[in-house]
Design the sequence.
């Protein structure tokens, strides 16, 4: 399999590969599709083989559980449209991977929805306000007609969805719904066929077994129709919520494939692909156009954001990717043109996370409170249904008393698992999608939930708080210049993996210094490189405490010492500027109650200088082991640590932090081992991500509370016979709507970063030096 492609999607479990990704050629793109018509695992295997056999496809994977196909293809040979057409010729329908899975949204359309609402309303009206003059048998025939129509309209989507889940090895609530509706319909039909006024002899025989059908047909037909109607309406609500959540992702994907009008030097427009745009290019948008990249507007405009809200933007403000222009024609300059290949790979990671959420909810895997409560609810509903049936059989006149069946059906329908199968997965999926819209790729949804409890944020310096592009500003000698030392340094730094080492190697190469011969293979360490050259031990590493420094060193610059046989011979002075908005990001995190600190492998002087500018405590000169020990000390002091790095160091030594976030703009998320990946350079997004995580945690807790209170009240009432199946189905549907509405709040709150003003009263720079140091002291 391709080195940068994740392992196959087996049962919806996509485990991203740890290696590769950054070295993927620019002509290799990743695409994600929904596959319709996968009836079994063998079909998924055949689809994967057909996809891999297409010209230009380097790697492919098809998941049966999530009905997702992902492929890495060569843009010089094929395209997504050609792949879709070729797979259609082979009997597989591929569509854009947005919204719910094909099996979930199959046969759900506006006409069916309206017909279900009309039939269900008429059935409820007959059950609530029965005509006093009309005979009961005529009303039963009318209700039978409504029930059969509901079976014809609402039955196929439920049956299609139930069959798809059963083939994946999951027994969904749709199976229980169809079974209860069928049993209730059968009871009503029996009541009409064995009318006491027409078949007295047969009724006498059946009465010996306790089967009394007189007056049962109305209640049975009402129960059957209500069960089907309310179930399909709940499915519509769930599908609409997922479709709304995936809207921003689908808009961004369609925008990447579009062609835009680029204004040439002579003012003439030319249509070019979005992949050819570069920062600074001037583009023109017309009314209704979608912004394919971030654009700095030249004039005021009214736009519709990806989340559906309309806003007025002034000239000089940024128009986000995926936003639709509502006003007249405007021009602007490209602010940021991310690689379409990287964006597609990020979208693929989001789809994998959504599949993992759906799989865990359906298979009820895990040991969290939600999974345990879901299993407890299933056991409780079955137990109460059996108890109600036995009690009615004992109190009645036989084991086949109709009231026992209807009471058991009411218990099974009234016990609502909507919180575990709809609300919690939908809330997690919405949070993952909103994070993607803000530039954060969530590879592990559990990490996003853990972020809500973080109390301390430990930042790495190089590549995280700084841009990660150090450059050599000065070379100072302790005594006299020696070109042989520079040749030895060039040879050692050719093996360096740290950014500072690569910057020194580039500086020497530009200066025309050729690498000299080495006596042995150099030893690459976390703070530098050591090796033997010309019979001497040469070391290029970060300045240590006690090392002599150049007298006129720039404050805040990193100093790298060149040692020969333990004696400092020269210094390289490097400057790596901090990211724009770093100070604002630290203050925003402090305002949200998180203590921030720098934990860097760079020199102590450079680290403390940057920390003083940001107003946070810091430790410098630490290797991966020392950083891990520092994090462990913070955890033992009672803190929950968020570790923020560039994602590269975690490959060698995984940090034991509670949550890890990597700042890796332009990198493929599959190549970054951290569960949370910030795909741009705006550190302010981290504070917004904390708000999103806390809002997600609050939503999950509220949904669980509503579900526990509802089921604790409704299940005993249904078992006692106080609630009919019709009322139980209506209450279950109402609870599902409340939970969906609660999850839908995450679509708009919190607002995307950069769209809201900073909270007033933030402390000034340099005023955060003692943040939480009384609770979480710095280790010695």
Sequence:
């Amino acid at each position: 399999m391709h080195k940068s492609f994740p392992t196959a999607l087996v049962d919806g479990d996509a485990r991203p590969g740890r290696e590769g990704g950054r070295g993927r050629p620019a002509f290799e793109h990743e695409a994600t599709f929904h596959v319709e018509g996968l009836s079994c695992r063998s079909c998924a295997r055949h689809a994967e083989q057909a996809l891999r056999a297409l010209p230009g496809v380097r790697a492919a994977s098809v998941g049966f559980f999530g009905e997702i196909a992902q492929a890495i293809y060569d843009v010089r040979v094929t395209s997504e449209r050609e792949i879709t057409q070729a797979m259609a010729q082979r009997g597989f329908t591929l569509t854009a991977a947005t919204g719910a899975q094909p099996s979930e949204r199959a046969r759900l359309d506006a006409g069916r929805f309206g017909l279900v609402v009309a039939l269900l309303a008429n059935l409820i009206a007959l059950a609530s306000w029965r005509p006093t003059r009309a005979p009961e048998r005529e009303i039963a025939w009318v209700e039978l007609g409504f029930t059969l129509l509901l079976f014809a309209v609402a039955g196929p989507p439920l049956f299609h969805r139930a069959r798809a889940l059963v083939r994946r090895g999951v027994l969904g609530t749709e199976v229980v719904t169809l079974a209860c509706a069928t049993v209730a319909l059968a009871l009503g039909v029996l009541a009409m066929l064995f009318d006491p006024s027409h078949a007295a002899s047969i009724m006498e025989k059946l009465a010996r077994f306790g089967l009394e059908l007189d007056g049962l047909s109305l209640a049975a037909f009402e129960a059957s129709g209500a069960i089907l109607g309310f179930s399909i309406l709940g499915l519509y609500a769930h599908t609409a919520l997922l479709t709304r959540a995936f809207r921003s992702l689908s808009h961004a994907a369609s925008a990447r494939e579009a062609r835009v009008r680029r204004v040439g030097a002579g003012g003439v427009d030319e249509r070019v692909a979005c992949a050819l745009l570069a920062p600074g290019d001037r583009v023109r948008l017309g009314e209704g156009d979608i912004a394919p990249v971030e654009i700095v507007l030249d004039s005021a405009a009214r736009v519709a954001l990806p989340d559906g809200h309309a806003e007025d933007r002034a000239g000089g403000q940024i128009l986000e990717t995926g936003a639709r222009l509502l006003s007249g024609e405007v021009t602007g300059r490209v602010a940021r043109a991310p690689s379409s290949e990287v964006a597609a790979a990020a979208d693929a990671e989001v789809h994998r996370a959504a599949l993992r959420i759906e799989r865990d909810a359906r298979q009820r895997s895990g040991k969290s409170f939600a999974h345990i409560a879901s299993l407890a609810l299933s056991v409780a509903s079955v137990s109460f249904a059996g108890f109600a049936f036995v009690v009615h059989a004992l109190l009645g006149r036989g084991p086949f008393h109709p009231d026992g069946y209807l009471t058991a059906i009411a218990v099974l329908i009234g016990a609502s698992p909507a919180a575990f199968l709809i609300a919690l997965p939908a809330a997690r999926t919405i949070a993952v999608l909103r994070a993607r819209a803000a530039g954060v790729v969530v590879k592990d949804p559990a990490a996003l939930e853990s972020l809500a409890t973080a109390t301390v944020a430990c930042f790495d310096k190089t590549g995280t708080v700084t841009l990660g592009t150090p450059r050599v500003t000065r070379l100072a000698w302790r005594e006299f210049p020696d070109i042989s030392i520079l040749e030895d340094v060039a040879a050692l730094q050719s093996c360096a993996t740290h950014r500072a080492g690569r910057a020194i190697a580039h500086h020497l190469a530009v200066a025309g210094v050729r690498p000299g011969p080495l006596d042995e293979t150099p030893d690459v360490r976390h703070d530098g490189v050591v090796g033997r050259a010309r019979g001497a031990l040469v070391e290029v590493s970060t300045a240590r405490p006690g090392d002599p420094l150049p007298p006129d060193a720039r404050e805040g610059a990193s100093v790298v010492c060149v040692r020969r046989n333990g004696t400092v011979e020269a210094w390289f002075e490097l400057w790596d500027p901090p990211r724009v908005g770093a100070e604002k990001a630290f203050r925003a995190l402090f305002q949200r109650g998180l203590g921030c600190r720098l934990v860097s492998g760079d020199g102590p002087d450079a680290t403390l200088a940057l920390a003083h500018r940001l107003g946070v405590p810091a430790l410098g000169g630490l290797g991966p082991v020392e950083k891990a020990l520092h994090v462990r000390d913070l955890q033992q002091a009672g803190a929950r640590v968020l570790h923020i790095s560039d994602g590269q160091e975690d490959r060698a030594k995984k940090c034991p932090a509670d949550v890890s976030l990597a700042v890796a703009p332009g990198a493929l998320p599959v190549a970054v081992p951290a569960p949370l990946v910030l795909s741009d350079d705006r550190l302010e997004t981290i504070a917004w991500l904390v708000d999103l995580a806390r809002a997600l945690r609050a939503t999950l807790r509220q949904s669980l509370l509503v579900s526990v209170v509802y089921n604790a009240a409704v299940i005993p009432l249904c078992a006692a016979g106080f609630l009919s199946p019709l009322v139980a189905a209506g209450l279950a549907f109402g609870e599902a709507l409340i939970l969906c509405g609660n999850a839908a709040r995450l679509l708009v709150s919190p607002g995307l970063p950069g769209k809201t003003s900073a909270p007033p009263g933030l402390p000034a720079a340099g005023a955060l030096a003692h943040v939480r140091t009384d609770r979480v002291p710095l280790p010695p």
About this structure: The radius of gyration is 32 Å.
